[in-house]
Amino acid sequence: MAIFVTPVFLQRQSEFYHQLASMTGAGIGLPRALDQLSKHTGGGGFRRSLALIIDRIERGNTFAGALQESGRDVPAFDLALLQAGEQSGRLDACFRLLSEYYRERAQLARQVMAGLAYPVLLVHFFLLIFPLGMLQGLVLRAEILPFLTQKLLVLGPIYGGVIVLLISGQGRWGERWRSLVETVLHRVPVLGRARRNIALSRLSIALEALVNAGVRLVQAWELAAAASGSPALRRAVIGWRPRLEAGQTPAELVSASPEFPETFASLYTTGEVTGQIDDTLRRLHHYYQEEGSRRMKTLAVWVPILIYLGVVIMIAYQVIKFWS
Fold first, then answer.
1. Contact 285, 201 (CB under 8 A)
2. Among 219, 188, 221, which residue's Cα sits nearest to residue 204?
3. Residue 195 CB contacts under 8 Å (≥ 6 apart), including other chains
């Protein structure tokens, strides 16, 4: 996985899984499909990685196992779906699901970045112009060093903070650190609820695939919780094992857990009672995916507006201060 997850990286992941879905759906074996991809897409590092994966598969390993052994940082969500697809014989369907998942993430990331581009440029313009005394010193007295020093002291911490936030949000860090990041972000209006909805969406579709693959219910829930990307959901589900093995149903445990909202618990209980758990999990996936995307898009609209307002207020303050 890349250090910074960009829309380009997400789109490449989507195309990778889309091509695998098309070829395996047409009856082409997975090693041959991967070999075709290595010849026509990606750079040298990508080709070497695929060659290693093909070698592992030909030696009898699964695709998910070969991905892990290739040295690629594969998300738990991908691994859960790929393992389920191989066990159930629906690998091409899982490829299509992953392709759509990464396509939606790439589209959302582009929208967020496009919305933030102009506000970020405006903030830089403001920070370079104000305070006006530093700009006057640069223009009238050629005080270059004080001007550059002041701008570095202001912009440096901002850049550093953004980089730290981007890196800390990646899923490669330890459970304790990811749990801390999740706790902090869940207190942020709109963003916290959006992240929780997306985690529930991942859990639902991973659980549906694992159950259809014939994975034991206890193990399926634990793998799906890990695939959700939420340490809080994973901790809650891990604690269910003794009670599930004692005879309690997942619906009872979901209803009693504060980590699962009432809507999720109600729909899951209905699906379990009626025996339509597959359909229910797919509906939960679509519902929470749409809710999460909607909230993220709302955030992408309002954050630039708030930045505009902040810059306008700061400009007004600086102008009044200058003239007074």
1. yes
2. 221
3. 182, 185, 186, 230, 292
